[in-house]
Amino acid sequence: MSSVVTVNRDLQAEKRAAATAFRAELTRRGIFCVNLISSPGAGKTTLLQATARFWPKPEKLAVLVGDIATDRDAERLAPYLTVRQLTTGGACHLDLKLVERGFDELNLDGVEYLFVENIGNLVCPASHDLGEHLRVVVLSVTEGDDKPAKYPKAFRTSQACVVSKVDLMPYVPFDLQAATQDARSIQPDMPILPVCATTGSGLAEWCEFLRDRRTKALAEHVRDDLSHRLDEQRMPHP
Amino acid sequence: MHEYSLARSILETIVAERNQRQLGPIARVEIELGEFSGIEPLQLESAYAELSVEILGDRSELRIQTVPLRGQCQHCRHEFLIEDFRFQCPSCSGSDVQLVSGEELRILSVRARQN
C-alpha cells in the first residue's frame, strides 16, 4: 500500500526572494548594480578599467570581481576603482551569498555604481540573480557572431549587450548585423553597444547608457515608494 | 547547470517533508522542470539516483514533468509556445513577451509506502 502526498514546493522561491530583497537594499542606498557576464577573455576587466578611466568621478564606482582562482583581476582594477576580489574555488558562477559577503566588506561611501564581474562562462551565471538592476552580456568579436543563438539564456536574461574588441573586426569573420539579429530574436529590444576599450570608441555611449539606466531605476523606486506611502495614508484609521 | 546540488536539495526537502508529516519510505518523487530552467533532466535523474540511497536511505524514483517554454505578448495578450528561443509574438510581432512558464523547479508530490 502507498499513498500520494502533495508537496507543491517551489525550490527557487527562497533564492528569488533573497535577490529581490538585496536589490531593494541597493536601490534604497542609491547604488545601481550591474552584473557583467561573458565568455572567458571577452574583455570584462578591460571594459571596467576603461570605464573607470573615462568616468568623471571614478570614486563613485566599485567592483566585485569574481574568478575561480587568483586575484589578478582585482590587481588590474585596483589603480582605477574600489575593488574586492571574490574567488569561488572552482564554482563556475557567482551566487548571491558570495556577492553579499563581498558587498559587506567594501567601503561604499559615495558609491553610485556597483559592478559585479561574473566568472567567465555563458551558461551558469545566466541562472543566478545576484540582486543586480542590470545584466549586461559582453560579446567580443573574436568569439564569433554565433554566440547569441548558442547561449539563448545568457542573452534572454541580459538587458544589454556590449560588443567588445570592435577594433579587431577587420581581421575576424564577425558579422555584427547577424549577431544583432540573433540577439534580438531572443531579447527583442536589446540595446547593442559596440565598444573598443583600447581606443576608447563607444565608451561615451556605454557610460551614458549606464547613467540613464541608473536614473530610471532610482526614479522607479521613488515612484513606487511614494505610491506606497500614499496608499498607506489612504488606509482608513481604525 | 548544477544538477548534483539540485538533486541534493530536492532530496533534503523530501527528508524534511517525510519527517514532518511522518510518512513511510518514499517510493517516488514527482517534480516539474521548466524547459528554460537551465537544468538538464537526464543529468538530474542520474544525480538523483546516485544520492537517493545516501540521503533518503533507500532507492526512489524521480519522475520529471517537463514544462514547455511559453510566453504572453504584453501588447495583444496572445499566449504562445516559444520555439527556437524566438521571443516574439507570432500573432502581432510584438516584442514585449513575458514568460508564462518554462523556468520551474517545483516538487509536486511524493508517493510514500505505508509504514
Please write out the topology.
The complex is a heterodimer of chains A (238) and B (115).
Chain A: E1 2-10, H1 13-28, E2 32-38, H2 44-54, E3 61-67, H3 72-77, E4 82-87, H4 96-105, E5 113-117, E6 134-140, H5 147-150, H6 152-156, E7 160-164, H7 176-186, E8 192-194, H8 203-234
Parallel strand pairs in A: 2-5, 2-6, 3-4, 3-5, 6-7, 7-8
Chain B: H1 3-21, E1 26-34, H2 41-56, E2 61-67, E3 70-73, E4 79-81, E5 97-101, E6 105-113
Parallel strand pairs in B: 1-2
Antiparallel strand pairs in B: 1-6, 3-4, 3-5
Give an overview in words.
The complex is a heterodimer of chains A (238) and B (115). Chain A is of the alpha/beta class and 238 residues long. Chain A has eight helices and eight strands, in the order βαβαβαβαββααβαβα. Chain A has a single domain, classed as P-loop containing nucleotide triphosphate hydrolases (Rossmann fold, 3-Layer(aba) Sandwich), CATH 3.40.50. Chain A has a seven-stranded parallel sheet with strand order 4-3-5-2-6-7-8, with helices on both faces. In chain A, strand 7, helix 7 (176-186) and strand 8 form a beta-alpha-beta unit. The longest helix of chain A has 32 residues, at 203-234. The radius of gyration of chain A is 20 Å and the shape is globular. The model of chain A has no long low-confidence stretch (mean pLDDT 94). With 115 residues, chain B is an alpha+beta fold. Chain B is 30% helix and 32% strand. Chain B is built from two helices and six strands. The radius of gyration of chain B is 18 Å and the shape is elongated. In chain B, 28% of the residues are buried. The model of chain B has no long low-confidence stretch (mean pLDDT 95). The chains are: A alpha/beta (238), B alpha+beta (115).
What is the H/E order of chain A?
Answer: EHEHEHEHEEHHEHEH
N-to-C span of chain B: 36 Å
- Global mean pLDDT of chain B: 95
Regarding quaternary structure, how should these chains be classified? heterodimer
Largest sheet strand order of chain B: 2-1-6
Q: Helical segment tally of chain A?
A: 8
Tell me the CATH architecture of chain A: 3-Layer(aba) Sandwich
Q: What is the global morphology of chain A?
A: globular
